[in-house]
């Protein structure tokens, strides 16, 4: 029983990491109707920037804030320069562009920083809690994820910019007619997502250790979590990410054929989606013909 | 809205002259040139280059399968590598375990992949956009794991080694070695695949698929059995890719789980986009991209080859977002307009 | 009184084709001008040109400012509210969110304006939390008009408000438009296929045929013109 509980809790902690990257994915999807397959690699790159700053002598939180700012600006720049040209092109072109960005960020990080695995400091001490079921670090990660979730929900639901962003994503022409600068909304969406991704990366690095391939697996599970929760819902992203984390852990522990962990985990997730094709918290859009 | 060329009907085209020759004449010249090139080339190149061209054609067949699904059906698949693997391992197991001759493995590979495609197509129909991407992604991720797991059949991590087939005794005198012989075998299959695709997509079925892609509700209201067509499209698409996989196993002479990773599925998708998703010629361009660009990228920079590959992808998407063949079409039309006489 | 909106020699394009060939249109301040014509005459393209949604040439003056070189967002910010063909509703958002978006350029007055809109359109108040896509055609049209009014515009541009609606509902909507014009003191440019109803309400009318203005004048004069009556009013 204790082992079962332990797996649940450590799955929860892993899930929080997936949840935080899933938030970034949802952010971009909400803002631009696109899945950004490069989100994980962008987060990884941001984490390397943070690492460089810390190595240069900055205190952790100073480096963190600077990285967030740089990532926000970087995300906006990427949208303007690299995504804007394929905005009116077929969806597949945009998908290919994000995949290209994935490859470029990954390869460039490997080239600049080498593939040596590095240590990364965590702001949270690593003390056991709840009778060694979790650590304070895990709690820290979960807390940060929940804070980001809260900020996002408030942003989308209660601010004018958040509403304008949702409108710009759904119906750019109508949004323009309301006086909304659609181009700027898209750029802000990408900037925010990059900032969220950077936060996710910085939390992941102490646990998974920093190397260019750190986020590959995380992205796949985050993607699954975001869709499981409903690709348009930030709450769904967090719930989905946590469920995926727990599922992955439980399947890994209790499945005899442990080589099939990924397969079985995904099969279970898809099974749920068969019954809820828009995810747990996603809304189907009513379309009158 | 562009006004169409007034004479773009077969009758009209036959009348016009383009730089002195009729459209039909140009078509004949082009086709003859292409046939000559394709038939003579293998005898002019080294075995390795012939092998590379054969792989181009194999990837073209695979991408053609993906085009049937994505271009004409609007469903994006990140999982076609799984069906490529299914075809490859079907051929490999039949040849290795049961001594089936290589050419006889193609029909079973086609059938199995068709059935798999229909089986996966049925539930996949419920999903759209990113959800379908996830489901197909799962297929791609599951493939290496499943291949390693069922190792009594698949040879597990080790894979299966195959003997590369010899040309038939009667033709050896023509200067055909194993690579050249396989080149022509694959060429025949490619031409057959293109013929089938043209018939399928330019006829009633094709129109139904485009209708389903563009206006699903109206299509259903017109009596088009949407679910049936979509499932069949899935099955046909995987059939093509599966046959390509079988050919790949035969030509390379080796299958192993590493060769069928997520990256293969992504390559197919990229090849499809670069060539042009709703085109048949684009599949060949896509095949060339998949075969040649990674090596070129490595030549340019061995420190960050995938960054170069990514840059190549960006270059193509920015200059030709509808793919090479998809963008060439309108360009060619404009060229024709300019060289028309009278 | 100077016209609030003036088009001079305006050409407009649908993609690459020129579909409106140099027209002159004026809307009097506080008045209602209607643009009539059959399908494909170029009416919608003209409206889209005014709002910067399609390529255009020529001069478009709005209250002394030139619109023809500005972006759609900037034009909206100047006080031109466009209710597009097909309503342009944000179907995935709620009724109230749609209204809030209309008030994006007038955030400080938004809450008060929303209440005013519910005054004009009580049915919207009832459905305020429903997804806009679930509303009927008539309700969506009301929502679209309300969204435009949230901007507190000086010019209201309406593209075929009667499209796809039952006659009874069309009468209601036109009654509301007239009421709004008088109470809000907003000028209206209306595009309509439903000529008889439009001519009853408008002050001025233009008739567009394949991209050219063929007749213009007071609405009453056009309504009495026997040729127009036969071609467009059916009697």
Characterise this structure.
The complex is a heterotrimer of chains A (about 290), B (about 350) and C (about 240). Chain A has one domain (about 1-215). Chain A has helices at about 1-30, 40-55, 60-85, 90-115, 135-160, 160-170, 170-175, 180-210, 215-230, 235-255, 260-275, and strands spanning about 130, 135. Chain A is mainly α and about 290 residues long. The mean pLDDT of chain A is about 90. Chain A has a two-stranded antiparallel sheet. In chain A, strand 1 and strand 2 (about 135) form a beta hairpin. With about 350 residues, chain B is mostly helical. Chain B has a domain at about 45-260. Chain B has 15 helices and 5 strands. The longest helix of chain B is centred in the N-terminal third of the chain and has 27 residues, at about 45-75. In chain C, the strands form 2 sheets. Chain C has a 6-stranded mixed β-sheet, with helices on both faces. In chain C, strands 2-1-4-5 form a 4-stranded antiparallel β-sheet, covered by helices on one side. Chain C has 10 helices and 10 strands. In chain C, strand 1 and strand 2 (about 15-30) form a beta hairpin. Chain C is of the alpha/beta class and about 240 residues long. Helix content of chain C is about 40%, strand content about 30%. The longest helix of chain C is centred in the C-terminal third of the chain and has 18 residues, at about 165-185. Chain C has a single domain (about 5-235), classed as P-loop containing nucleotide triphosphate hydrolases (Rossmann fold), CATH 3.40.50. Chain C is globular and about 45 Å long. The interface of A and B includes residues 95, 97, 224 and 274 of A.
């Amino acid at each position: 029983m204790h082992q079962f509980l332990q797996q649940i809790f450590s799955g929860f902690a892993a899930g929080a990491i997936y949840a935080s990257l899933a938030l970034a994915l949802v952010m971009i999807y909400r803002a631009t109707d696109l899945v950004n397959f490069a989100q994980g690699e962008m987060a990884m790159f941001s984490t390397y920037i943070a690492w460089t700053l810390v190595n240069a002598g900055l205190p952790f939180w100073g480096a963190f804030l600077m990285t967030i700012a740089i990532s926000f600006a970087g995300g906006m720049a990427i949208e303007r320069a690299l995504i804007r040209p394929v905005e009116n092109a077929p969806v597949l072109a945009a998908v290919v562009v994000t995949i290209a960005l994935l490859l470029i960020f990954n390869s460039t990080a490997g080239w600049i920083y080498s593939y040596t695995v590095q240590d990364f400091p965590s702001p949270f001490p690593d003390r056991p809690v709840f009778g060694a079921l979790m650590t304070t670090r895990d709690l820290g990660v979960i807390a940060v994820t929940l804070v980001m979730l809260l900020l996002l929900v408030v942003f989308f639901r209660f601010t004018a910019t958040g509403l304008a962003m949702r409108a710009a994503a759904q119906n750019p022409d109508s949004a323009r007619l309301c006086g909304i600068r659609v181009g700027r909304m898209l750029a802000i969406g990408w900037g925010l997502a990059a900032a969220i991704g950077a936060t996710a990366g910085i939390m992941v690095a102490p646990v998974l250790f920093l190397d260019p391939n750190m986020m590959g697996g995380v992205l796949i599970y985050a993607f699954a979590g975001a869709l499981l929760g409903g690709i348009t819902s930030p709450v769904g992203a967090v719930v989905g990410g946590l469920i995926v984390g727990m599922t992955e852990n439980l399947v890994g522990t209790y499945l005899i054929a442990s080589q099939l962990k990924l397969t079985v985990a995904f099969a279970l997730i898809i099974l749920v989606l068969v019954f809820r094709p828009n995810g747990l918290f996603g809304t189907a859009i009513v379309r009158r013909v | 809205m562009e006004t169409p060329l007034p004479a773009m009907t077969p009758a009209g085209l036959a009348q016009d002259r383009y730089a002195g020759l009729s459209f039909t004449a140009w078509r004949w010249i082009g086709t003859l040139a292409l046939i000559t090139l394709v038939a003579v080339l293998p005898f002019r190149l080294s075995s390795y280059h012939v092998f590379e061209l054969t792989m181009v054609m194999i990837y073209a067949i695979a991408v053609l399968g993906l085009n049937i699904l994505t271009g004409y059906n609007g469903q994006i698949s990140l999982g076609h590598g799984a069906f490529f693997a299914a075809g490859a391992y079907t051929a490999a197991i039949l040849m290795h375990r049961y001594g089936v001759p290589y050419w006889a493995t193609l029909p079973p590979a086609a059938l199995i992949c068709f059935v798999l495609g229909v089986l996966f197509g049925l539930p996949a129909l419920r999903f759209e956009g990113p959800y379908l991407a996830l489901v197909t992604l799962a297929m791609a991720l599951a493939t290496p794991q499943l291949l390693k797991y069922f190792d009594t059949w698949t040879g597990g991590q080790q894979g299966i080694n195959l003997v590369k087939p010899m040309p038939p005794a009667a033709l050896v005198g023509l200067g055909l070695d194993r690579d050249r012989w396989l080149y022509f075998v694959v060429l025949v299959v490619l031409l057959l695949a293109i013929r089938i695709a043209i018939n399928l997509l330019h006829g009633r079925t094709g129109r139904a698929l485009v209708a389903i892609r563009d206006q699903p509700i109206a299509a259903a209201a017109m009596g088009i059995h949407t679910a049936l067509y979509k499932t069949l499209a899935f099955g046909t698409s995987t059939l093509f890719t599966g046959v390509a996989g079988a050919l790949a196993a035969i030509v390379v002479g080796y299958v192993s789980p590493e060769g069928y990773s997520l990256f293969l599925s992504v390559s197919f998708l990229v090849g499809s986009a670069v060539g042009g998703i709703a085109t048949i010629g684009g599949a060949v361009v896509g095949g060339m991209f998949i075969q040649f660009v990674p090596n070129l990228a490595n030549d340019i920079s061995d420190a960050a080859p995938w960054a170069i590959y990514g840059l190549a992808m960006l270059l193509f998407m920015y200059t030709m977002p509808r793919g090479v063949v998809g963008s060439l079409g309108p360009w060619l039309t404009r060229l024709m307009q300019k060289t028309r006489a009278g | 009184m100077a016209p609030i909106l003036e088009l001079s020699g305006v050409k407009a394009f649908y993609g690459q084709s020129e579909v409106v060939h140099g027209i002159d249109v004026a809307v009097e301040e506080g008045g209602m001008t209607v643009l009539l014509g059959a399908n494909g005459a170029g009416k919608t393209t003209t409206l889209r040109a005014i709002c910067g949604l399609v390529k255009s040439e020529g001069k478009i003056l709005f209250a002394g400012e030139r619109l023809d070189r500005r972006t759609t967002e900037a034009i909206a910010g100047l006080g031109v509210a466009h209710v597009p063909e097909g309503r342009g509703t944000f179907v995935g958002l709620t009724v109230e969110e749609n209204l809030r978006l209309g008030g994006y350029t007038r955030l400080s007055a938004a809450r008060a304006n929303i209440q005013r809109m519910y005054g004009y359109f009580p049915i919207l108040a009832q459905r305020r939390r429903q997804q806009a896509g679930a509303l009927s055609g008539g309700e969506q049209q009301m929502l679209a008009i309300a969204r435009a009014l949230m901007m507190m515009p000086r010019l209201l541009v309406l593209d075929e408000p009667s499209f796809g609606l039952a006659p009874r509902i069309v009468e209601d909507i036109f009654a509301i438009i007239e009421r709004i014009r008088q109470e809000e003191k907003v000028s209206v440019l209306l595009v309509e296929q439903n000529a008889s109803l439009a001519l009853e309400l408008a002050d001025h009318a233009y008739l567009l045929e394949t991209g050219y203005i063929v007749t213009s004048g007071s609405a009453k004069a056009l309504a009495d013109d026997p040729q127009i009556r036969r071609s467009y009013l059916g009697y």
